[in-house]
Design goal:
With about 575 residues, the chain is α/β, with parallel strands linked by helices. The protein is built from 30 helices and nine strands. About 60% of the residues lie in helices and about 5% in strands. Pfam families: TIR_2.
Length: about 575
């Protein structure tokens, strides 16, 4: 792929001209040069990545190309491109020869345009018309499959499949992988999946996967063959969402095939084989191979799917993948590998924070999909939250996650509500986590401030304090909190405070245990302080009265902190701060 194409200005004129050129390719082939196919293909690739209304207008010309007779013709007449031309001196059979040679010859530019560029645009831009297009183009592609498989499948199976892979054979394999990828796209529609029950495609795909060379660790598998196997597995994964088809696949011993393929060198083959196993057997978590590598691939697919508007990546829908992960996370080693991964917890937080599409684009199917994502998400995160303080502290630190989990805990789906409330209960019962984390930073937290406004004093149970005060170590917060403290003292209140230090949390715990009201001086610095959050969290758990006071202008209480203060009225001294 040419990833160095500069992004053109995608104005109306640019799209109009490109639409005209693409439509010409759907009608005419005799006068089109390879260079023109390449140029138009590159321009289509550029706009494919864009999500604008102007780009959507290119869908109809693309459909005309895919519906034209040229699509099937290029599979019936595979041609190679020119490849890379290299000039220089080369050693051939021990002799130095000067001249020009061609290397890495692949499919011709015309074939690349119809097989790859047009389908890739379709995959990203047919969303609003997916059912309509599936009922027309999808069925046509199923009809084409018989011709395409009859002509090219033999290079992968039987005696011919054992022969060395030359350039033409590799090109035919790549062509097959492109067409199977098109089938994968249309199997996202249930009506198309059902069509496979009356076709021989499943049997033919299984023959590809039974190739023993795939699992022979001493044999190097050609990349083109690997691409066919990857797409074949994804196709069976999509088809396996139908009960009738998964029943057929069980009878055809796909389970044994996947057990063998999950140990091959290619990570995508390993990954799809593993998630296929979860469809075939409820005890698939017992058969996880190389969990460290598998967890990384799972995170990659989830992360990419979360970012896509359609919540799907490489033909695998997010809500289905999360359902597979529910089963796989029963395996302790797999969960530990997920948590060790760099983006592990972050990715899990992302998918629980997915919201419904805009109202104008929303329909019952979309809402059902998001509901399934949430259901699996809370189930997985509930399981993850039991693995020590690290996941707990990261979950608490994300305000968006906390806001969303609180919403889900009051939702209509019983399973989701139950798991969400379980997460909240688990987070709320880890009162010392923030303190333990703060110990790592004690050198920084233990510093005293010469300008300390509030004079701290040791907790003395014999003194009848009226309330406690909790504030961050930020200078501005201490000044404002000091003014509040002094004002209360002049009014006759007995106020207890504790300075920042290694033992601050333990001393505040003793004070909070007395059930006295605690006045918390809220700010962004307070939210960021592990010690402050531990104090207010402990007070919430002990059911001590909490008086929330905002001491920072424009600060908005949200997330876990909002949950802890229990929806109490915030006394905001914003105006007072700036005028006095």
């Amino acid at each position: 792929r040419d990833d160095n194409i500069k992004l053109a200005i995608l104005n109306e004129t640019y799209i109009t001209n490109l639409s005209r050129d693409v439509e010409e390719l759907s009608r005419n082939e005799s006068s089109i040069s390879p260079a023109k196919y390449k140029s138009i293909g590159q321009r289509v690739r550029v706009v494919t990545k864009q999500e604008t209304k102007e780009v959507e207008s290119l869908l109809d010309p693309i459909l005309k190309c895919l519906n034209s007779s040229f699509y099937l013709n290029i599979f019936e007449n595979i041609e190679l491109g020119r490849g890379n031309v290299i000039a220089g001196k080369f050693v051939i059979h021990g002799k130095v020869i000067s001249g020009i040679i061609q290397t890495n010859r692949s499919l011709a530019t015309k074939h690349i345009f119809f097989m790859r560029e047009c389908p890739e645009f379709l995959f990203r831009h047919d969303y609003k018309r997916r059912k309509e297009i599936a009922n027309s183009l999808g069925r046509k592609m199923l009809e084409h499959t018989k011709t395409i498989f009859n002509q090219h499948l033999s290079i992968l199976i039987g005696e011919e499949g054992k022969q060395p892979v030359d350039e033409m054979k590799a090109a035919r394999m790549i062509a097959l992988s492109y067409h199977i990828k098109v089938l994968n796209h249309f199997t996202l529609i249930r009506s198309i999946r059902k069509e496979f029950l009356s076709l021989s495609i499943i049997e033919q795909i299984l023959k590809i996967l039974q190739d023993r060379s795939l699992t022979d660790r001493d044999q190097i598998v050609n990349e083109a063959k690997t691409a066919v196997v990857e797409q074949s597995l994804i196709l069976l994964y999509s088809l396996g969402q139908e009960k009738e088809i998964i029943g057929i696949l069980r009878k055809k011993n796909l389970f044994d095939i996947c057990l063998k393929l999950r140990i091959v060198k290619d990570r995508i083959i390993r990954f799809v084989s593993q998630i296929l196993l979860t469809l075939l057997d409820k005890d698939a978590h017992k058969h996880i191979h190389e969990p460290h590598s598998l967890s990384k691939t799972c995170i990659e697919y989830v992360d990419k799917a979360v970012k896509e508007t359609r919540k799907s990546y490489q033909g695998i829908k997010l809500h289905r993948l999360l359902k597979n992960l529910e089963i796989m996370t029963v395996n302790d080693t797999f969960i530990e590998c997920l948590l060790e991964a760099k983006q592990g917890i972050t990715v899990f937080i992302k998918y629980i924070c997915i919201k419904y599409f805009d109202e104008k684009d929303s329909d019952s199917e979309n809402k059902e999909m998001i509901s399934r994502i949430h259901n699996s998400a809370v189930s997985i995160i509930w399981r993850i939250s039991s693995y020590g303080p690290k996941p707990i502290s990261k979950l608490k630190a994300n305000d968006l996650f906390i806001d969303q989990i609180l919403i889900l805990s009051k939702g209509k789906t019983e399973n989701t509500k139950r798991a969400a409330n379980g997460i909240i209960w688990r987070l709320g019962n880890e009162d010392k986590i923030r303190f333990e984390k703060s110990q790592k930073k004690r050198n920084q937290e233990n510093k005293t401030d010469d300008d300390q406004v509030i004079e701290p004093e040791e907790w003395d149970e014999s003194i009848p304090y009226d309330l406690l005060i909790s504030y961050s170590n930020k200078t501005n917060d201490k000044i404002i909190s000091g003014k509040i403290y002094n004002r209360l003292i002049t009014k006759g209140y007995r106020v207890y405070s504790e300075k920042s230090g290694q033992n601050r949390f333990e001393l505040m715990q003793k004070a909070i245990d007395s059930k006295k009201p605690i006045l918390v001086c809220l700010s962004s610095a307070y939210r960021a302080s592990t010690v402050c959050m531990a104090e207010v969290e402990y007070a919430s758990k002990q059911s001590s009265p909490i008086i929330p006071v905002i001491v920072e202008a424009k600060y908005d209480v949200q997330g876990w902190l909002k949950h802890l203060i229990g929806g109490k009225k915030n006394y905001a001294f914003k105006t007072y701060i700036h005028t006095n």
